[in-house]
Amino acid sequence: MAAILREPLATDVEQLRKEVLNAGAANAKTLFASAESHLDSIGRFVEETSDLQRATFTTLQSVTLFARLLYEQSRIAEAEDARHQALVAIDGLAGILQSTNPSERAISLGY
C-alpha cells in the first residue's frame, strides 16, 4: 500500500481505538455511529477483500457490543472484557489494512 494512503487509514484506526479506550456510559450512544463512520471511511480507500470484510464486520460487531454494555451499565468486568475484545478486533483490522491495496477511488484521487 502506498505510504501516502497509510496515514489517513492509520488516523481512522487510531481515532477508533482512542474512542473505544476512552468510552464511557455518557458517550456510549455515539460510539456505534462513530465506529461506523471510521470503518466506512476506511472502506472507501482500500480494495475490498474477504479478509477485510470479516475484519470490518468483527470490529463493528465488537464495538457495538461494547457500546451496548456501556449504555446498559452492565457489570464493569463484562464491559471491560467487551472493550478488550473491541480493541483486539481493531488491532486485527489494522493488521489486515497493512496488506490491502488502494481502491480505484483512492488511485483516482492520487493515493
Describe the secondary structure blueprint for this structure.
Layout: H1 3-22, H2 28-45, H3 50-71, H4 76-97, H5 104-108
What labels describe this entry?
single chain; Four Helix Bundle (Hemerythrin (Met), subunit A); 111 residues; mainly alpha
Note down, in words, how this protein is organized:
With 111 residues, the protein is mainly alpha-helical. The chain has a single domain (3-108), classed as Four Helix Bundle (Hemerythrin (Met), subunit A) (Up-down Bundle). The chain is 78% helix and 0% strand. The chain contains five helices and no strands. It has helices at residues 3-22, 28-45, 50-71, 76-97, 104-108. The protein is elongated.
Question: What's the rounded overall pLDDT mean?
Answer: 91
- Number of helical stretches of at least 4 residues: 5
What would the principal axes of the Cα set say about the shape? elongated
- State the CATH architecture: Up-down Bundle
Gyration radius, rounded: 14 Å
User: What's the number of extended β-strand segments?
Assistant: 0
| Secondary-structure-derived class | mainly alpha
Q: Quote the beta fraction.
A: under 5%
Query: Can you identify the CATH class?
Result: Mainly Alpha
Q: Total domains, how many? A: 1
Following the backbone from N to C, one meets helices and strands in this order, namely HHHHH
Subunit organisation of the chains: single chain
Q: Helix content range of the residues, please?
A: over 70%
Q: Roughly how many Å apart are the termini?
A: 9 Å
- What do we call the CATH topology? Four Helix Bundle (Hemerythrin (Met), subunit A)
Q: Return residue spans where pLDDT drops below 50 for at least 5 consecutive residues.
A: none
Largest sheet: none
